[in-house]
Structures are given as C-alpha cells and as structure tokens.
Amino acid sequence: MSLRVIDLSYDYGRQPVLKSLSFVLSSGFNVLLGPNGAGKSTLFSLLTGLYESRQGEITFSDLDLKAQKRRVLALMGVVFQQSTLDLDLTVQQNLLYHASLHGLSSQQAMNNVSGILEELQLLNRLNDRVRSLNGGHRRRLEIARALMHQPQILLLDEPTVGLDNDSRNLIVEHIRELAKKRGICILWATHLMDEVQSGDQLILLDKGEVKAQGKAGDLCQQHDTDDVYQLYRKLTKTVEIM
Amino acid sequence: MNIQPYRYCFTGIVKREFLRFIQQRTRLLSALIRPLLWLVVFAAGFRAALGVSIMEPYGTYITYQQYITPGLCCMIVLFNGMQSSLSMVYDREMGSMKLLLMSPLSRPFLLMCKLVATAILSLLQVCIFLLIVQFVGVDTPPLGYLTAIPAIFLISFFLGALGLLLSNLIKQLENFAGVMNFVIFPMFFLSSALYPLWKMKEASIWLYWLCQYNPFSYCVELLRFALYQQLDVTAFLVVLVATVVVSIVAINSFAPKQVSRKGG
User: Fold this and answer.
1) Interface test with B, best of A17, A44, A50 (most B CBs within 10 A)
2) Pairing of strands A76-79, A153-157
3) Phi, psi of B262 (to 5 degrees)
4) pTM
5) Is residue B261 part of a domain?
6) How many domains does chain B have?
C-alpha cells in the first residue's frame, strides 16, 4: 500500500495552509514532523476526505481519494488528534459501534481486535466505561479501534500528545511493531522529535510546505546535521519544538 | 449487492443511540414529565375555559385532556427530534462525528440510519406516554394505538430530519437555546396542538393562517385521526411531502467540513 500526494494545496479563505505538497509514502513507519500550526491536522483532514481540496491529487495505491472515497476509507484506519470516543459507552460498545460503521459483525470485529487489545493491555477493560479510563488507555483504545477493520494504511495525528512517558513508549513501540509485522503503511504525525528514528521515512512540514523528505538519517547527513533536532532548526529556522 | 454490512451498520447505529438514551435516564424522565405537566396541570385549568365541541375525529364531546393528547405526543417527538439535533452538534464539537464520516458506507445511508434511530426512540417515548395517560382519564380506542404507530413513526422521522437540518445550521452548542425560541416554541404554539384551529380563527385570522402553514399542525392532526383509526389524507400527504423534502435537504446539506477543526 502506498500513499501518493501530488501538488496538494489548501486554504482557509485567503489564508493558505498547505502549499503545493507532494510526497510518496510506502509501507512502514513514516513520520510527519512539524510544529503546531504547520498544517498537519489540515493535511489529515484532506487525507481522510473530511476536507476536499480544490487543487492536487491524493491516491492510495491505485485508488483516487476523490473518485473512490468509500473504497479508500475501507482501507484506512485513523486516530485523530481530538478524541472521538464516546465517553458514556463501554470500551466494547465503542469498538462495536466502530465495527458496525465498517459493516462488520460483532463476532468478526471482536475476532479481529482481541489480539490487539491483549497487546495494548485493554482486554480486561472491555466492560469499563471509557470515562473511567485514563488518557493512555483511551489513546490505546482509539488505536485498537482504528485497526479493527484491518486497514492497510494507518494515519495517527499526534497520538501521544499529553501522555506520560510509559504510555507514550508503549504506543510508539506497538505502532512500530505493527509496521514491521503487518507491513502496513503508517503515517505518524508529531511535533515531538524524540519519536523520530534514523531509519524512519520523514516528511518535515513547516508553514504548509514540505521542507525535506526522505530517510531521517539520510536527511541529517545531506544537511550536515547531527540529529533531527538540528536538522529541524536548520531547515525551519526555529527552536520551537524539542 | 451484499446487504450484510448495511444491516450491521443499521443495527450498530440504532443500538448506539438506544444505549446513549438509556444512560441518560433524566432525558426519558423529562421527556415524559413535560407533557404530563401540560396534561395534568395546564389542561385542568384550561378545561373550564375552553369548551371543545364535537369535531372530527371524535364522535362525541371530549375532555380537553383528550383533545391535547395527540399534540402532547407530537411535543415529545418534537423535543426528541431537537434533542437529536443537539446530540449531532455535540458529536461534531466533541469529534465523534468524524467516526461516522469515516465509514466506507454511503453517507446518505448513515444519516438515514440516524434518522430511523431517532424515530424509534421517539416512538418508544410516545408509547410510554400513551400508556401513562390512560391513568389520567384519557381514553383512546385500543386499536387506535396500533394505527397510531405508523403515524408516530412518520412524524418522528420528519421532526428528526428537521433536527438534522438544524444541526447543519447550528455552528456551536451554545446556539441551541435559539432553537428553543425560534423553532420548538413557535412550532408548538402555532399549531392545533393546544386548541382547534377554528378557535384560533376566531381570535386572529393571521395567526390562524400561520397555524395552517405550520407542518406541525398536520403532524398533530395525522396522529389525532390515527388514534381513532382514521386517516386524515391531507395531513398525511403534507407530512409525507415535508418528510421527503426536509430529509433530502438535510442529508444533502450535511457538511463534513464543519466536523473537522483546524489544528496543528
């Protein structure tokens, strides 16, 4: 599965947010790195079809998002920055609701997700209301839910924001494992540079523009920098993020 | 075409709405207490002031409580429709609407499922209300309950679609108070829910015409006749056409862009 974005632009009225973005992602762990306001969430809204761009193309393998949106959505799992869980329902009820929206039976859904729930240490929380879960568990639940219909591409918009280190590490490790084991294409949006490893495919987004793309390690070499933090400073001329 | 995914989706949406409903016990309570207060307190006071003469579909003189019961049933449906509108705005604000929009099934189908779920909840509440009102002296022919069911369902669907349309127009949760002032109250009071329209005509001709153009009047009359195993053809056609038109407009005007927020 690959994701191809060609010449994608978007604006909120007169304010341009994304300026002629082009990039290609393939299976594995891909990082979209950029500070707050870089346009990451807008890009996610475009990739998920919530927004429609007037200019540019988005294709998933050979499927054009505009022309075959429903087929694309069937292949896509998403974790949005803002939680989309129903706090008054239990973990299982949230999962089954999502499954039903993808046309899955309860049994099929639970078969698909039970292994993931176990790995994410959520199997014993099925009957708990989401309201009673902490931030880390809620995030893990959203990830499990996004994987329920066995997507080939997984988009995660700042999934570790606001979490403690343990929860963060568990989530990052799990997603990296997933990319290796299942060979799905993962796009991980973040502003936290310590989540980027040298082998990751990196897209550096700033002020709506792609400043650099390629393997993080290679990019550091190309730009003669020691690490991603320096690379970021050099290319964006900012010290805002860490 | 494989209809199984659509069946699972329909069941899932209805189940979710039902689960949310039963967890909000105060919602059911207030849905019932509001019309019961009207029936027991308001109607008792007005009973003396308003004489309701023999009129269709009633074959004899009836009490004022009897007269306003269909209107109060429609009031329950109206409030539930608006509640679903509020819930859509809430889902949009909280982000859970994105989940619905990320479904690979067709959007009109998903929204229709939402409307059916709302209609089922309204029907349930009205059935409970109709059972309770028997104990305060409102008699309805037993078979009338059966013939009322499709009428209540159609009315519920119409008012649910109106709620959906309003949710497209309401940008923020805080604006919902405006719905109360500009939609619920005018719709209810400018209808035949509380008084026959000929009485309204005697009071004010322009108010009478406003009531005549209010589709809620036709909802009330459709149910009034249905409870007596009769069909008010005009009311049925008006409600049916209004349902189709409002549903189409509501579904087509559903804008996903409102759902997503600017972020990082």
Assistant:
1) A50
2) parallel
3) -70, 140
4) 0.86
5) no
6) 1
Q: What is the spatial distance between Cα A210 and Cα A32, in angstroms, rounded to a whole number?
A: 10
Residue B262 lies in a domain: no
pLDDT the model gives residue A242: 47
Q: Per the CB < 8 Å rule, is A93 touching B19? A: yes
Q: Do A69 and A177 sit in the same domain of this protein?
A: yes
ipTM, 2 decimals?
A: 0.85
Domain co-membership, A51 together with A68: yes
Backbone dihedral angles phi then psi of residue A38, each to the nearest 5 degrees = -75, -25
Helix (H, G, I), strand (E, B) or coil at B228: coil
- Distance (Å) from the alpha carbon of B11 to chain A's nearest alpha carbon: 8
User: What is the spatial distance between Cα B243 and Cα B237, in angstroms, rounded to a whole number?
Assistant: 10
Residue A136, domain extent: 86-150
Give the domain CATH number at A194.
3.40.50.300
pLDDT, tens digit, 9 for 90 and up, residues A149-193:
999 999 999 998 888 888 888 899 989 988 888 889 999 999 888
Q: What's the domain count of chain A?
A: 2
- List CB contacts (< 8 A) between A36 and chain B: 264
Task: Please classify residue B196 by burial: count the beta carbons closer than 10 Å to its beta carbon, then call 0-12 exposed, 13-18 middle and 19+ buried.
Answer: middle
- Residue B125 CA to residue B31 CA, distance in Å, equals 7
